[in-house]
Amino acid sequence: MKLLLKRFPTPKGIFGTFGELSAKGELVCLTVEREWNNNKPSVSCVPCGIYELVPHESPKHGTCYALQQQNLGVTIYGPSLRTHILIHVANKATELAGCIAPGKGLGTVGDEWAVLNSAGAFNELMILLDGKPAALEIVNA
């Protein structure tokens, strides 16, 4: 399966990078990530490109998916510039360390823009991926 994550420009004053994740031209969920910060580990979203999505068991997040793309410096365990870039449950960009969180809607949590119902969107994504590897293309709109 191939997924497409289309990132949209973030309006000034809103922290985070928001996007739409689709499969076969159909919207699967919305996403939130950290803002682009020169690909710095833990504080930046990853570069645009095509990644392998690999089923992963995270000590912190449980069963999830990890991104891999050696040519872009992203691997699960390293050595590489970026490691453990996961798709997992979270609502706000500040809850992420370079990872991607799915959501079913957009709104605010406290005073921060966020995706809403991340757990529901994550569960639907996990059912769609069915524990199998996939491809994820990330582009800027």
In words, what does this structure look like?
It is a single chain. The chain is mainly beta and 141 residues long. The mean pLDDT is 97. The longest helix is centred in the last third of the chain and has 12 residues. The protein contains one helix and twelve strands. It has an eight-stranded mixed beta sheet with strand order 8-5-4-12-1-2-3-9, covered by helices on one side. Strands 6-7 form a two-stranded parallel sheet. The protein is globular, with a radius of gyration of 14 Å.
**Beta strand count:** 12
Instruction: Report the mean per-residue pLDDT as an integer.
Output: 97
Largest sheet: 8 strands, mixed
Radius of gyration: 14 Å
Spatial shape: globular
H and E order: EEEEEEEEEEEHE
Question: How much of the residues is beta strand, in percent?
Answer: over 45%
How are strands sequenced across the largest beta sheet? Answer: 8-5-4-12-1-2-3-9
Helix tally?
1
Distance between the termini: 21 Å
Query: Are there runs of 5+ residues with pLDDT below 50, and where?
Result: none
Helix content: under 10%
- Secondary structural class: mainly beta
* Assembly state (oligomeric): single chain
List keywords for this structure.
single chain; about 140 residues; mainly beta; 8-stranded mixed sheet; two-stranded parallel sheet; 1 helix; about 10% helix
Write the SSE topology.
Blueprint: E1 2-8, E2 17-23, E3 26-33, E4 49-58, E5 62-68, E6 74-75, E7 82-83, E8 86-87, E9 101-103, E10 105-109, E11 112-116, H1 118-129, E12 134-140
Parallel strand pairs: 1-12, 6-7
Antiparallel strand pairs: 1-2, 2-3, 3-9, 4-5, 4-12, 5-8, 10-11
